[in-house]
Amino acid sequence: MILVGIFAIELHDGFDELERYLSITEEYLKKAEDNFENQLQEQVKKFSSAELPPEELDEINEYYGEQHWDYAETFPRILRSSFFVSAYSLLEHKMALICRWLKKDKQLPVSWSDLKGDTLDQFKLYCKLASLDLSYNSQTWQEIQNYLRLRNCIVHNRGLIDEARQEKELHAYVTRKKIMQDSLLGLSIRPRNQVSLTEDFCKEVIKTMWECLSNVLKAYEVQRQEQKTDT
Q1: 58 has a pLDDT exceeding 80
Q2: pTM beyond 0.85
Q3: Which residue in 22, 93, 102, 182 has a CA-CA distance of 20 to 30 Å to 33?
Q4: How far apart are alpha carbons 200 and 14 in whole angstroms?
Q5: Side-chain half-sphere of 170: how many Cα atoms within 13 Å?
Q6: 223 and 46 in contact (C-beta within 8 Å)?
Q7: What is the Cα–Cα distance from 128 to 18, expressed in whole angstroms?
Q8: Strand (E) positions, the chain?
Q9: pLDDT at residue number 124
Q10: Are the C-beta atoms of residues 231 and 1 closer than 8 Å to each other?
Q11: pLDDT, tens digit, for every residue of 125-149?
């Protein structure tokens, strides 16, 4: 039998590091943006006193506007998209780990990679083969399925929702998350319908992924206790 405590520790390994990485890099980007804005204010004062022609001032403003957009929008978008893809890769790794343990513990005749479908389909079917009592209609599982759609959109379509696979479902999900931004959670749709993750959404991703894995642990523990009672 799998020792659930050791199981949990091994499953959780990596999520704390991702959370710290997100916090540190977000803080660094914020400081970099603040430093840029301070430098910008100094440049504005300098150019204002230089009495430059209007067309030169327009060019300067356009240049610094593009620089500011990088700090405020482009760099955070790249960071968070990269974070999200890394987090999803970690989730897939943990799911594979669970399936390997279940195969050994229950002496299942097939591996999860032998099953048809995407990663989540394979994981779901394998947990069913192991007779784990899990809910696949839960909000947590539905969110994990949305993460897969979002991950594929970012990796294969640069986060552009238009013409992405499952475009309709993606657009509905991103729009719903945009509405939820009042609670500091969600996504926003950039020009051309490009996904732009928020810091709070990234934090929620870690929480939801671990909740998904925890549900598997709980189901395994319940099953184990029931088996002890039966014997």
Answers
A1: no
A2: no
A3: 182
A4: 19
A5: 23
A6: no
A7: 30
A8: 187-190, 194-197
A9: 93
A10: no
A11: 999 999 998 988 899 999 999 999 9
In which residue are the tokens 């319908």 written?
193
Q: What are phi and psi of 226, to 5 degrees?
A: -65, -40
How many Å apart are CA 64 and CA 66, to the nearest integer? Answer: 5
- Secondary structure of residue 118 in the 3-state scheme: coil
Retrieve residue 61's tokens: 């403003």
Listed as own residue / partner, the contacts of 189-192 with beta carbons closer than 8 Å and 24 or more positions apart are 189/161, 190/73, 190/77, 192/160, 192/162
Structure tokens at 24: 């540190």
- The residue among 162, 163, 129, 127 whose CA lies nearest residue 144 is 127
Using CA atoms in the order 156, 158, 163, 166, what is the torsion angle rounded to 10 degrees? 60
**Tokens 């990269």 sit at which residue?**
82
Amino acid at 63: Y
Q: What is the pLDDT of residues 75-90, one digit of tens each?
A: 888 999 999 999 999 9
CB 90 within 8 A of CB 14: yes
